[in-house]
Amino acid sequence: MLLALPIVLVAIVLVALVLVIVSGGPPGWQVYALGGVAVVATGLGGVLLVKLLWMHSQLGRSVDSLTLEANTDHLTDLPNYRAFQQSLERINDNRAYSEAIAVLFIDIDQFKGYNDQYGHHAGDLMLRTLAERLQAAVRPGDLVFRVGGDEFVVILTELGSLTEARQVAERIIIEAGVSVRLVDKQKEVSVSVSVGLAYSAHRETDLAALVIDADRSMLDMKKLGRRGGGSVSISPHRSSRINDVVARAIDEQLLTVVYQPIVNILEDRIWGFEALVRYTDPDVGPVSPSSLVDKAKRLGRMDALTRQVIEQAMDAAVQFRQVAPTVTMMAVNLEAKQILPTNLGDFLQGVPKRFPGVDLCLELNERSLRVVSEELRLQAVNLRGRGLMIALDDYGAEQSSVGALVRLPMDVLKLDRTLVPDLDDVRQREMVKALRGYMDTLGHAMVVEGVENESAAGRLRALGVTNAQGFYFGRPAPRAAVIERLERGLAAVETPAEYAER
Questions:
Q1: Among residues 240, 274, 303, which one ends one of the domains?
Q2: CB of 146 closer than 8 Å to CB of 96
Q3: In a domain, 427, yes or no
Q4: Which residues are bridge partners to 159 per DSSP?
Q5: What is the mean pLDDT of residues 405-422?
Q6: Is 482:502 a contact under the CB 8 Å cutoff?
Q7: What pLDDT score does 112 carry?
Q8: Do 112 and 209 belong together in one domain?
Q9: Considering the entire predicted model, what is its pTM?
Q10: Which of 81, 280, 379, 502 lies deepest, with the highest CB count within 10 Å?
């Protein structure tokens, strides 16, 4: 409106000058009037130009405002997933070829539980608080985003090494771990996060792979079942050092093994353990088990890794049996082809004689048994005849093969939790009962994996299931911790008082 008034006044003056020229007016006035018209017209054009420029700037501001709104998470005021994608592409395209960056995926542990227990307003407070802490923990030039739910992403720029990226990630874990005060509840809640790190030493041609690697690393950390945070899972695909790290760990026999109990839930006692490989590098930090195995395969060291795990596990089993004579089975994971004579067949045949009184159970995962060849079947028969046990592991995790059930000679069927996640569903209960009946008829054992609470254990007991495994009965623990537990007794579930003794 303010710009409209001058335009009207200029138009009136312009009309008056034109009338002077047309009417003839006093001598010389026509010349002055023509000059006046030119001046006024020029002024009018300037005013119109100013008006157009003002309108353009307002329009630009509106577009910028809408773009900012579309790229912002309104709860935390952080850039959102759309902005993350755009920023990552821009940073990757504009960095020097050898300039390193990293992507961190960060997820709040047990966030759903906090929401359910304290309400969504408490969950929102935790998200806003974590957003502030992440911004405080990163370096100048690093970018923080909230990409949805309880997930955040950080882009680390201008990195000199993987160690530098890991240090920032560890600082984030420390900052996030400070408790959050819920004012209306008069309560302080501890917070922990799982962090997955994907390191990129050179300009990427496939940014989607970098993002997927970071996300998978974070999920690997959560699958380890850690409570209280404190660790970073580093993707093996992004770091040029990981190959060397894994190769050295295997070649120099630096791997460690942890043990999770397998229990009889009807008799409330431990009768076996599953050995699980772990490795923590002094510089890189923990290498997730799935990444460790994947790299070992690619490096042609899978047999060496498995041999090392079996040696450690059977040595530990002898000690476990000295403390608890009824604990007589140790399970180790293998790919099916590893039991063949061309791989570990000869080594495996000699294990029973070296470790008498302890049964080595070879857990062959379902993925490697989509096709049970005659050679594989005969070798399984041979190994069982020499005193080893065979288990079909993770049954139901992939496209479950009935062929493996009927063709693979076995002693144990391990039922993956993904096949029966909800025992309130009658179809899943009937599946458990059918498989239990099948194994009972053949005189074999069935173990249900992934049991995390008493409710699930109780339902399994009601279905006649004898054996189970999961966090409810014990998390994977080092040898010394297992021996301490066995010295306290064979109970499948320790009481809170027994936990307090640790």
A1: 240
A2: no
A3: yes
A4: 100
A5: 86
A6: no
A7: 83
A8: yes
A9: 0.60
A10: 379
